Amino acid sequence: MMIRWRDNSIRLIAIFMAVLLWVYVANEQNPMSSHTYQIPLTVQGEPEGYVFSGLPGKVSIKVKSPKNLSATLRVSDFTAQVNLSGITEGEQQLPVQVTAPPGVEMIQVTPQVVQVAADKITQKSVPVTLNLKGEVAQGLVRGKPVLQPQAVTLEGPGKLLAGINHVGVAVNLSDVEDELVREVTVQTGVKGVTVSPTRVLVTVPVTSLPVKELPVRVELVGLPAEGYLAGEVVVQPAAVRATGPKQVIDALTEVNVQAVDISGVTEDVVREVGLVLPNGVISLQPKQVHIAVDIALQATEPQQPSPDEEPEEEENPENVTER
Known about the structure:
Layout: H1 2-29, E1 32-44, E2 50-53, E3 58-66, H2 67-70, E4 79-83, E5 90-95, E6 97-99, E7 105-110, E8 113-133, E9 140-142, E10 146-148, E11 151-157, H3 158-161, E12 167-172, E13 180-185, E14 194-196, E15 199-204, E16 206-208, E17 211-217, E18 220-221, E19 228-236, E20 239-243, H4 246-251, E21 255-256, E22 260-261, E23 269-274, E24 283-285, E25 288-297
Parallel strand pairs: 1-4, 8-12, 17-21, 18-22
Antiparallel strand pairs: 1-3, 2-8, 3-7, 4-6, 5-8, 8-11, 9-16, 10-15, 11-14, 13-15, 17-20, 19-25, 20-24, 23-25
């Protein structure tokens, strides 16, 4: 029995030595080498109704393999996956699972764990606000805008929707002369959030302002030169058309011109003078008037005799007494 044990031991030692010799020769002829690869990260078990953030597009792996095998390795020979099955709302750490071809030893995976944030997709109804730019044509006034629909439905991650309380649309009214009816695209400006419907109908009534004809009032400032007087003032046209809101127009009785200074003048004053736009009035037509102010010499009265002086008697031949 002792001889058999020794014989078996010798055989085992011989086999072990042969394996070591083979490994040694193999390593000498085909040594191990290490390489680093960037592997696309794929997702498995992604549940519906969620969006995810924090997942890198690729992971870095370092592997070791025999030299002859390394020469044939490609990125497509490896896989890197994260399993999202059973994930709940919030942040969670999930392991990265990497597979490699036979004969390849995995040395390092970066990152080994990823921080994944899961946000549930929800819906929210918000009002649409209208931003009006520009002004309608002169002599017109815009009415109260109407939006159809007045609210839209947003869909997206709950955290993003929490910060959106309304969506806005803009319409330009510059030089509009009639009722404006326009479809406008609704945009949230937030990536990952959609809106339904995507367009709303905007209607802005535009009507004419009331017009009233008003007399022109002229104000003269100062006095002509000594010996001269200001006489008749002629205005052409004598009345102008004022356009504005009804409550403003109804309260007006006249329109003033800019003050006309006649200080020290010695001849008629003729000039074009601008009108003073009353508060609340949109426009005046025309914007200026022609004014003529008559300047004349002051008339002088005849000199009266002093009470102490007696008037001289005229000689009358008929009253002469003959001697």
